[in-house]
Specification:
Rossmann fold; DNAb Helicase, Chain A; nine-stranded mixed beta sheet
Length: 435
């Protein structure tokens, strides 16, 4: 495929899949396009406001005309249809365009220097150092690595940590006893939440997301076995404090108004999803909405493997998800089901996690939820559950367990004996200031 066609493939991909723009933008600039027309179109796409997750071709065309480019909506549609398709290797086309841009820059640079020598404006000795520096700077662009850093690059973070002003502040969960142990949810970390079937993993995670959003922290929830409507219904009960069907219409609307004001976002895909598609959605949510917490429910919905490759698939997925957390500076909660337990109503431990030793080694934190079975919830809608911290990697945290009270009517978890403190309230802790 020619460079011109590679540029068109990138533009078509942006038009068809704007939610994947984060992949295109990563290390890629408008100036990399050789065609001025393509450069202008790419810049216009970057600046274009998304409407319901799509690009308005008519609005985009009008914006381009204001900048002197007569590109009709029909031309945009033709570009999208002819050059974009599922499975397009966008990274390959980015590399081709960037390398072509570097070759063009190098040719222009050498041409200018040769002209300087030819016209007698400088001698070869005077331009030799400039030539070497220029060639090295341009040709090394394709080999740049932001991951290789000198020791001094981390000194400011070390000083901030020592002074109690670390920029890597943990977010409190709002459950005081849990925060006393784990010391909040730290950016760059992956936490696993497990427990046997029906123990309340999804509901607890939804509580966590709701509490954080009430404190102004943007949250993304991706549940592949429970539709967003079901989770939002639980949140309505959390907000109102009453069973969903007991609410009057005015009470329902009041709760909906509060929830609509929260920085809550959902990935609306039921069933299996590819890990590449999941990554694109998370990167988009971070770029577009600034999400700080991502909840993934659950691991086996986005694994792809055949035969006896489950262990390798789990390890690779965990490494990928951990890398997203570190790259985006977010905290990810991943729900994982245990392997088949030897008896019912068992506390799930690290050795019970399904499929791979990586489930113990790669995550930063492992939490296990347990609740008693067989109680008559109609007579006693409240019961205590145990949340075990089986692993806390950060030196500031500790392993242990906390007792929470679950109220079925409000679908809410509270500190045991807290009297139902509002989710948005919480004490300022020393560890929030980098301790």
């Amino acid at each position: 495929m020619t460079i011109d066609n590679s540029e068109k493939a990138i533009l078509a991909h942006c038009l068809r899949f704007p939610e994947n723009m984060a992949i295109v933008l990563d290390g890629f600039k408008s100036e990399d396009f050789l065609s001025p027309k393509h450069r202008a179109l790419f810049q216009a796409i970057r600046e274009h406001p998304l409407t319901i997750g799509r690009i308005d071709k008519l609005l985009l065309s009008n914006n381009l005309k204001k900048k002197g480019w007569n590109i009709e909506p029909s031309e945009l549609l033709t570009l999208e249809d002819e050059y974009s398709f599922d499975g397009l290797d966008i990274e390959y086309h980015k590399r081709e365009v960037i390398l072509a841009s570097q070759r063009k820059r190098l040719a222009n640079f050498l041409s200018v220097q040769a002209k300087e020598i030819e016209e007698g404006n400088t001698d070869f000795e005077g331009v030799k150092g400039k030539l070497l520096d220029g060639i090295n700077n341009i040709s090394s662009d394709s080999f740049k690595s932001n991951s290789v850093k000198a020791t001094e690059a981390f000194f400011d973070e070390i000083r901030d940590l020592h002074s109690g002003q670390s920029i890597n502040k943990a977010i409190p969960s709002g459950w005081e006893k849990l925060d006393d142990l784990i010391k909040g949810l730290r950016p760059n970390e992956l936490s696993i939440l497990t427990g046997e079937t029906g123990s309340g993993k999804t509901t607890w995670a939804a509580n966590l997301g709701y509490r954080l959003s009430k404190c102004g922290h943007p949250v993304l929830i991706a549940s592949f076995e429970m539709k967003p409507m079901t989770i939002i219904r639980k949140m309505i009960q959390m907000e109102s404090g009453y069973p969903f069907h007991d609410l009057k219409k005015q009470e329902l609307e009041s709760s909906l108004k509060v929830i609509s004001s929260l920085p809550l976002h959902f990935i609306d895909v039921y069933g299996q999803i590819g890990i590449s598609e999941l990554r694109n959605s998370i990167y988009y949510a971070k770029r577009r909405h600034g999400v700080q917490l991502v909840i993934l429910d659950h691991l086996h919905f986005f694994l792809r493997y055949s035969g006896d490759q489950e262990r390798q698939a789990i390890d690779q997925a965990l490494r990928d998800i951990k890398s997203w957390a570190m790259d985006l500076d977010i905290h990810i909660i991943l729900i994982v089901h245990p392997t088949k337990l030897t008896y019912d109503n068992k506390v799930v431990h690290l050795n019970d996690l399904k499929g791979s030793s990586g489930l113990k080694q790669i995550p930063d934190n492992v939490l296990s939820i347990w609740r008693p079975r067989g109680e008559d919830n109609s007579k006693n809608p409240q019961n205590e559950i145990l949340l075990y911290l089986l692993k806390v990697r950060d030196d500031s945290g500790d392993e242990g367990k906390v007792i929470l009270t679950f109220d079925k009517r409000s679908q809410s978890y509270e500190d045991s004996g807290s009297g139902g403190a509002p989710a948005a309230e919480g004490k300022q802790k020393e560890w929030q200031n980098g301790y």
